[in-house]
Design goal:
mainly alpha, 236 residues, 2 domains, elongated
Length: 236
Amino acid sequence: MGGIIAVLPLLLYFSVILFFIGLIQWMLILNATVGYIVLGGGCLAALFYFSSTIIAIFFVSAPFKTPLSRFIYAAYHLLFAIFHWVLITVLDNGSPKWIDKRRWVYHTVHKREDRAVESLGDLDYQAMHWMAGQVSISGDSRRRLVLLVAQLLDWPLSPQLESPEFEEAPWISILNFLSQKHKNHLLTKTHTSADGEEFALLVGCAALPAVHTLILPHENYNYEFDINNEIYWSQY
């Protein structure tokens, strides 16, 4: 039943193709110039459709997929399943590992995306890093920023935190934004228990080796040591 339902969109696509063929033929009879314009638009749409189909066959993370992508991908691996059956049953020979692997892919073609996700051991880090670059640093997003920073504590010794990609992400801007409120609370001595938990979270993040390296004083930075100067507070 799942296969039948997956085929239904193909009928819709086929009807659209027939419609454009008839439309182009009709427009070429009425007005050749308009007909060629419609033909060009139809060719661009067909090119996009077939390009999306081919790309999705080779790259599981392709943002655009068509029903044909899955069928072509499954048909390709079906050949290896048939070849494996011929070697084992008809010829009574052993099957090479690479053929057996392709045969196994055919039987699990509906789990292709799941296999790709399972192969990414650092998917959580990638999601966290992507979110850090997408979320807006503002008061409306404060709760999201707090939850995002909390995830850093789950990667205390991860090699990903030592990569240049991590240094280029706006983590320092996020931590600096979250700490501004606590700076004011420390000056006015007004804070709640929730503020204390958030402050403890920031302290824990500052102790991470990767974050600590980013916030350490550097010889190229000019620090202000006058406590009455506003820059003294903003620099930290």
